Amino acid sequence: MAVYTLLQGLRVTDAIALSLFILLATSLVVKHRSSGLRTTRLNGPTSYSVIFGAFAELTQSTEPVSLYDKWVREHGTMFSLPMAFGARSIVLSDVKAASHFLSKDTYTYQGMPFVKNIFDLLFGRGILSSEEDDHRRLRKALTPAFSNVAIKGYLNVLYDSAYKVKTSWEALLESGDATIEVQKWMNGVAFDNLGIAGFGYDFGCLNGNRPPAVDVFESFESPEHSGFISRALFFLSPVFPLLTHVPTESNRMLKSMKHSMRAIADELLERTRKELSLSPDKQAEKSMIGLLIKSERALSGLTMSSDEVMAQASNTLLIAGYETTSITMTWALIELSRNQDVQRRLREELSQLPDTDLSWEQLNLYLPYMNAVSLETMRLHSPVPHLLRTAVKDDIVPLGAPIRTAAGVTVSELVIAKGTSVYCPIGHINRSEDIWGPDAAEFKPERWLGHELPSGARGVQGHHHLLSFGDGPRICIGRNFALTNFKATLSVLIRNFSFEFPDGPDTPIVSTKALLLRPKIESEKSTSVSLKVTRLK
């Protein structure tokens, strides 16, 4: 009766697709159940749905980290999560177990097949979906583009975008508009910087242009894609190819995204190939796209096919960089508006340096409070709440503290059988009171200054004891570019403007679903974050 009622509330195409999904997913039950027989049986939440398990709640939630917080309080740092059709996933929030999962032998745990299929379907095989030798080869080809030397060469681009925002905001303020929707501008900064620094292409978002890819990203925010059924079909359609032929809004969006991404990558790559063939410039080859083109040449020793080059352009530009960077910068402005003392202290630190564009060394070595603000923003507001991988071979996972299994046995290590899906809730680990102390939920940049972090936090691997960038051989290749982008942009904005909420610091902020979770003011539409902006100079 419950399933019949659910189907009644759907459009015909979604109802057909859901029915197909149920029938096809049933074929996986035996496989999932058998893979779980040798995995250590753990306690965990009860199933919320016979069909979808806890997957429904995780997918629908706009606060997945809070869900993990709740489950850890109830079931401990290691627990079993009910998934679709009786399958069980293991959740690792024990710090030692998470470190093993992420960095001990990264290719023991690989991307879930349906996630890799999504990336392959959209872009072709790229660094986000490759494994083992392919991943090492692709990462080696891209690494020079994200070295500190390369990032120093991108600084002028980052400052140009920040000054475009400054000029535009000054014009808005002169016209009498003191309230500015900052998230839209941070989106533009992220998109334009990745386009120019990475590919020598100005998308012109900060000049009012609207590339088709932006429309595709924002389509994830529409009601058609916010419901659980639509999201489930979108993420599972690559597993069951038949579902891609059902004319749902999600499938139309997926095809639109693919065509948009390919069109951008085609144009950028073809133009750069011509420029390099006419005037082989060694400096040009240091850009991201120049290195990708170079990797097509057999003599480089890092050969990639044309399809792989296309995939890296799409992956790196629009998936790995745009969403995460714009979300993090928006959260920084939110927290600085909530915490005026932090904003003033950051401005005071910046005033101690020359009133010019800061060098890479100044941004990264002489601004400890700026660094603390960036780390604290990433700690509290990781754009990616969890990592999901599957064990491709049996594994023994060491634990930092003993746990009791579902059978009542105390163990200090966990058996993970081949085929078991494993979640690492990085958002929860980043803000757990057991790891970071009783003030873990507070925005306190001071925790990074003048004294040691709590012992639990020091045990966390990753960039500065944070898992926001992942860890191990799969740690985010663009993390230093992202941090420099963050600091350069914020240095210009904080020197020239002050920020506050029009309705006071207690203005409720919630998350809303897009490709990743984005912040918004609760009373505003879509993903709007409107702040009162005041010019200082």
Automatic annotation (TrEMBL):
Known pathway: Secondary metabolite biosynthesis; terpenoid biosynthesis
| Family matches, as PROSITE patterns | CYTOCHROME_P450
Keywords, ordered alphabetically: Heme, Iron, Membrane, Metal-binding, Monooxygenase, Oxidoreductase, Transmembrane, Transmembrane helix
Which family is this sequence assigned to?
A: Belongs to the cytochrome P450 family.
| Gene Ontology terms: cellular component | membrane
KW Transmembrane (keyword) present: yes
PANTHER family reported in the protein's UniProt record: CYTOCHROME P450 (PTHR24305), CYTOCHROME P450 12A4, MITOCHONDRIAL-RELATED (PTHR24305:SF166)
Q: Where does heme bind?
A: 476
Q: Which cofactors, by name? A: heme
**Which lineage do the record's taxonomy fields give for this organism?**
Eukaryota, Fungi, Dikarya, Basidiomycota, Agaricomycotina
* Official protein name in the record: Cytochrome P450
Q: Where in the cell is it found?
A: Membrane
Q: Which Pfam families match?
A: p450
> A GO molecular function for this record?
iron ion binding
